[in-house]
């Protein structure tokens, strides 16, 4: 029997597997829900902000705009057809017909077919609230805002840093 060899352009371009590439199974998808992301961000930020000089008793709330997005690998086929036409007056014109077809690359995973994920984008952050002791100091507050904006790639106007009330002894 002759082995079927697909034409080279029909094969999806797949980057070599990276060592730590985690498979995207259903359990994984559930684990990466918005609440998980929010909790992970909040814990990470709280631990980091506690390290900043002058900051104590930190609470962090992160509000995400949407859940993570999968970017799917696509096959794009482009066809181009050029026709020259001559009209009765002797003038010529070129007519170009371009067709583009896009299809998501499907891979077999056991007995299921799944779209090939080329990348996963982290969810964007709608807002961050930090309540901490010490942020009455303008410099300390600036440190906190800088840390949050850099770490979560969020605009400064989406970060609210408020002083914690001091408990009466």
General description of the model:
There is one protein chain. This protein is an alpha+beta fold. 23% of the residues lie in helices and 39% in strands. The chain is built from 3 helices and 9 strands; from the N terminus they run ααββββββββαβ. It has a 3-stranded mixed sheet. Strands 2-7 form a two-stranded antiparallel ribbon. Strands 3-4 form a two-stranded antiparallel ribbon. α2 runs antiparallel to α3. The longest helix has 18 residues. It starts with 25 loop residues before the first helix and ends in a 6-residue tail after the last strand. The relative contact order is 0.18. About 9% of the residues have low confidence.
């Amino acid at each position: 029997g002759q082995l079927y060899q697909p034409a080279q352009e029909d094969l999806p371009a797949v980057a070599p597997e990276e060592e730590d590439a985690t498979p995207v199974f259903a359990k994984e998808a559930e684990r990466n829900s918005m609440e998980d992301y929010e909790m992970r961000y909040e814990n990470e930020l709280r631990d980091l902000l506690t390290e900043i000089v002058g900051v104590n008793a930190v609470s962090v709330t992160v509000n995400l705009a949407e859940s993570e997005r999968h970017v799917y690998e696509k096959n794009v086929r482009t066809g181009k057809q050029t026709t020259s036409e001559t009209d009765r007056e002797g003038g010529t014109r070129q007519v170009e017909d371009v067709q583009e077809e896009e299809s998501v690359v499907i891979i077999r995973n056991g007995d299921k077919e799944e779209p090939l994920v080329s990348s996963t984008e982290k969810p964007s952050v709608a807002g961050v609230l930090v309540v901490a002791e010490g942020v009455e100091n303008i410099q300390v507050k600036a440190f906190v805002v800088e840390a949050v904006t850099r770490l979560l790639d969020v605009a400064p106007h989406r970060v609210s840093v408020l002083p914690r009330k001091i408990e009466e002894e």
